[in-house]
Amino acid sequence: MKITELVQQVVARKIKAREQVEASIAKARDIKEYHALLSLTEGRALARADEIDTKIANGKDAGVLAGVPFVVKDNYLAFGAPTTAASKMLEHFNAPLQATVVEKLEAAGAICIGKSNMDAFAHGGSTENSAFGVTHNAVDTTKVAGGSSGGSAVVTALDVVPFALGTDTGGSIRQPASFNGVLGFKPTYGLSSRYGVVAMASSTDTMGCFAKSADDIALVTSVMAGRDPRDMTTLPDYFEVQHDVPKNLKIGMIRETMTADVDTDVRAAVNNYADRLRAAGHTVEMVAMPSIKHALAIYYIVVPAEISSNLARYDGVRYGRRAEGVKTLAELYGRSRGEGFVTENKRRIMIGSYVLSSGFFDAYYLQAQKARTVLINEFNALFEQYDFLLMPTAPTPAFGIGENTDDPVKMYLADVMTVPPSLAGLPALSVPAGTSTQGLPIGVQLVGRAKSDAALIALAGSMEARV
Fold it and tell me: Is 222 designated active site?
């Protein structure tokens, strides 16, 4: 059932918001073995559901998301449960405020029922880096859920909630969406506010969502979008749900993402989706993007640099984990950070500190930013000729739990397809496009020029009936 249909039933009093919330919480408990949720906000959720039901009974407008349960990734500040970012550092941190997008969704009548598992501080591509345990894939529990927003992808795939929030810095919504067979949307950088969300890399962090239909993605995004005076990177509200898709679109399929290094089933899924686009009257052509092969290297210089700066605030002094029995300030810093951060957090801090150091800033960080500009210019050149771009979401279907944990480079390669649009700040949407020979979901990625979010989602929606 689509969100609009659910809302209609709640508003028509055919079903109560409280019943919806109770059903979602019951489902959440039923899927405990997937370890997709870190906490439930049951008391607050039920109280808010009763408020929605009272509003409707009194003939008041309860909002476009009236009574719709949802889950937030546990790096969103939200009331009703600790905001841990899946780390020991923030294990007992209770947020003093809520993230802007959570406030917007609640103002529209949506009801947060819980916080989902993730890679600690969003560092990872499998949700194996959570300090509180691994999340299992919704289709095959021996496989990873993807990451870092793996928990949100799984609760959406298993119908616990109609939509869930994630964050996408380099693919952390799109890749788990692909692995679990749902839609995952990364908006244009600045479309929705980052205020009240634990920062990873400030120049690529975006707030997006998972759902099972493009219409649901569009509706949720329309509520999340807009200017926020507390986040100066947000753009004036330009997002308006689009239902009609122009005919005869030109779509470029990036040649460098369809090489022999990409899984055979994934390439077949992308080619099949391209054929469906052609059958719908669009033109799909192979295009070249030479600098895309450098995108992952750029990303893993720029992003760790920003991570090392953002994580400097966790020092055991102001908030978060504080080591006991220390005698000096240096020992307090060292032990608090040693206990609070997982291995991947420490690895990225070290890389970031290295590339920002006085001896290596010009050789690494500055060169990476120059290469990033080249990548952005290549995207811009392609969008002068093409309306959208098509590429795989991930080079493989979901891999096995533990398969890549001892090889960080192999783990980073899982982001090779999702990183380029992130570096350029472009909207990108992963849509289900079939299954592998082992029955695992495969997603394909549609990418648009900046601020083409609504048209991108509408294109994906027009293709749903053709799957």
Answer: no
